[in-house]
Every structure is written in C-alpha cells, then in structure tokens.
Amino acid sequence: xxxANGVITMDDRYIPGTNMPYTDSNxxxxxxxxxxxxxxxxxxxxxxxxxxxxxxxxxxxxxxxxWVSVEGKKYNEAQVARILIINATRGCxxxxxxxLLLQRIQGSLxxxxxxxxxxxxxxxxxxxxxxxxTGEPNYDNVHAAAQFVTKKFEPTAExxxxxxxLTVLAMATISxxxxxxxxxxxxxxxx
Length: 191
Description:
The chain has helices spanning 34-40, 45-52, 56-64, 77-89, 95-106, 119-132, 139-149, 159-190, and strands at residues 2-4, 7-9. The protein is mainly α. It has a two-stranded antiparallel sheet with strand order 1-2.
C-alpha cells in the first residue's frame, strides 16, 4: 500500500527502496533507474533523494560511515544500488547488520575487486526474490524464492551464500514494507 497524490492503493508495486512504481515482474528492476544515471553521468544527492525519499543528511551519513562511497558530487550505478538496498531493508534491520550482510557478499564495502557480483545485480536479485515470494512471507517461502532466483548463479559454490543473504535482505524488505504500511494505517485509524 502506498499513498501517492493522496490516493491509497493496495495493488501498486514499487521498486524496493524507491518511490518508483513498476509492474513488469520479468524486467530487471534496476533497468528502470539505470537510464537516469546514464543520462546524467550519475545522480546528484537531490536526485537520489527524489528517487528514494531519503533526506540528503541520511545519505551523507551513510557515506560518512563508509557504507556508500562517493567521489565528487554524483552517485554512480553501484552507489545508487547500494543506497537502494540499504533503504529497502533499514526499516527492519539495523544499519550495521545491513553492512555486515553486504560484506558477506561484497567483501570490503569500499573495494569492488572482491565483490561476488555487481551491486546493481545484487539489487536485481533482491527485487526478483521479493517479487517471487508467494503465500505467507515466512522464512520457508522467502528462502524458496531466493533459491529459485539464484538457481543459475555462477560460481555454483557461492550460490548458497547468495541465497542465504538474499533471504535475509528480502525478509527485511518485506517486513519494512509491512511496518511502514502498518504505521500509515495506524495514523489513518487514529487520525
């Protein structure tokens, strides 16, 4: 459920960590954002805020803490994807926990040479996992979705670790959405 322009909708789908709707479940979610980054040679802090709903000070805090690295005044594809992952999951997980999960897949958060996969690829796997969950969003269903979306991931030896991290990230994303919607409904009921 989102309320945009004062309208409450139950069936709209948003790209996790953003204010951007999408409906094509087969498409890579980051492909909706990538043209914006390419056209502008990166996104400014205000553009990142417009896409995510984040305050500039929040993103700057993440940069200061080393969770997002930025050189200059523009955020590139990997940095935007990292911000989206953090934003999608932070309603349920502590930021230090998110950083540890990302390190489990990406190694050092400041060095891309040890990454298991690109940041935008990780974001796409997260989005596919969330969209794939059927039935109750419990561990078994979310883990089954994570295993399904990673079934062709190479290197095969790392597939289990990726599915494990995706399970936690997807459960956090779903839980964050439920908490946000619950708080919105609470204000409507009490308001």
